[in-house]
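Recap for those who missed Tuesday's class. We walked through two folding examples back to back. For each one, the amino acid string is listed first and its predicted structure tokens come directly after. Nothing is annotated here on purpose, so try labeling regions yourself before you check the end of the notes.
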Amino acid sequence: MNTIKCFCLEWSFTGNMTYGRAAHTASILSNGKILVIGGEGIDNIALNSAELYDLSTSTWIATSKMNNARYLHTASVLSNGKILVIGGQGINNIILNIAELYDPSTGTWTTTGNMNNARYAHTASVLSNGKVLVTGGHGNGYLSSAELYDPSTGTWTTTSNMNNVRSVHTASVLSNGKILVTGGNNGNGSLNSAELYDLSTSTWTTTGNMSNARRWHTASVLSNGKVLVTGGMGSRNIILNSAELYDPPTSTWTTTSNMNNVRRWHAASVLSNGKVLVTGGSRSGDALNSAELYDPSTSTWTTTGNMNSIRYGHTASVLSNGKILVTGGYDYNNIALNSAELYELFGTN
């Protein structure tokens, strides 16, 4: 007898956030709650507010505000459970070098050491030794600089510069502990270059170039160790549907099948079944509510149910129960949303 396996995609609204926000961050705390921080608000003003999503009640509660409003910042979960928020653009679009720490046990913020360079649209990666590597972004021009935060001392130290200036790029922690940085904008357009940071030597080395230059793309580390890069804005500002895979042992890129939709500033989430869910994003003169799944075992994309809201510049967090929480983002009028929704993949035989 033939067995038919059906996966049904379901999107459902959950409680609204107190504030509409886009270009914000969402961090999964050790207690399972989701901390949403900052972003650009409905009036295009940087926010210092933060709120917590409780999975057990599907509700949002306010927590204490950051000391500095910011968007296009980063937020990293440290090994001690605290959240390190770094840089971004603040009130009146001032570029920040300020960092601060959120303590989930007290619900309070404290300032910590300032970065050596103010920056936004950068990346932040938690390394195997517990330090945080910050790369590139935009500050005093486009940056190649990188620096390390030491949670044990609350201080920053510079490390060697990347080979290329870049912002709105990606940084992925590989299984060998190295950091893969891909693409971005150098001020003249999108980049196809990629480079690796080696923690043991504090040095950068170039690795194979991507097939397509891209910025505002995503990069996801798959269960097989490869890195899936999707979409973004390419050369001549063309928005892409292409995807490619980086293989760390060979340092090479191979193209894989294209997404069904071109998209940039979307979100990508690795699901518990190993598939990658891509949601939303924008394209020329439009924004998307579409979602699609990449299956690494077949290297194919399948469309799935649409989100309830069009959004880009949003977040997508994999919850402890396997659901995906999508929050905020801009709508097609570039207005920040306060809505949130949940995705769940049901499997039946």
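Example two. Treat it independently of the first, because the proteins are unrelated.
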Amino acid sequence: MLLSEFAQVVNGRVSNLDTDFEINAATSFDVAGSCDVCVVTTPKLNTAALSSAAGAFIVKQGNVLPGRACVEVADPWLAMAGLLSKLHPISAVQWFHGIHPSAVIHESAVLGANVTVGPNVVIGPGSVLGAGCYLYPGVVIGPNVSIGDDCLFESNVVIEANTRIGNRVIIHAGSVIGSDGFKYEIVSVGRIKIPQVGCVVIEDDCEIGSCSCVDRAGFTETRIGARTKIDNLVQVGHNCVIGNDCVIVSQTGVAGSCKLGNWVILAAKVGIADHVTINDGAIVMAGSNVMREVPAGEHVLGTPAVPVTQELRIKIAQNKLPEMRKEMLALRRRIEELEKRLDGSSSQE
């Protein structure tokens, strides 16, 4: 694709282009060559961009780099996503098509049109797959699972019984959906396991990274809202309800029965205690542990998590503790000296 053709596709305006060229790759500043394209999402990156050998840059309208070929667009990341999809179509990474002879598909399972089932896949009784689904090697679909159209499950994904998955859902390698919820109670005979008889519901256009787990509910459902993106190595406990358009980053654990509103962000290594509600648009910063409800739109940080400005004041005070300790010890010594003097004066009287 020529740069000028790309600009037309994304309704962009080309600036400072002396010679049109065939786009070789979309890549980062440090490795780009004369036929490559980079994205500049903010003017803060202009200096780094100008030092790059890239042939052209996707920039936000009004942020043209002097003397460098640019494609001005309303949303640089949206344009870059379109270019990446054009240069790297998903069909290029699909290994095969059709039903592999090593797959084990129960006679009562129903597969839609143009479904690909890879080597050693197992599909249980009563399960239904929509049109255009693509299952990589080793995927296991349990009994009575419902899967919408155009879903992609990478190798060794496990979908447990009774799970319901919407359309265009992507689940990366090694993740388990519908695993047993973690529920034990102490009774007269000791600690007993409480059966988890609910299910998991994943709505349209979600994506779940590698080696993540979403546990099924105790009685009803664990739900992941539409367009929510979950990173690698994330645990979502039983009975959780995750809203629409949320982002949950790697190594985060959401304990059972939590509720997340829409557009919530949980950064890396966040821990959420059970039965906590995080309301719409809230952001929990990396490494935080949340033990109370977070109001809508609030940004929290720390353990226990508090508003970011409050946590920053705490950190500033903590950094001063060594100096404050020295001052305190010096004051203690002065007080002790004054007390000795006062005791001496009293005894002379």
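Answers for example two:
The CA atoms of residues 185 and 191 lie 5 Å apart.
The mean pLDDT is 94.
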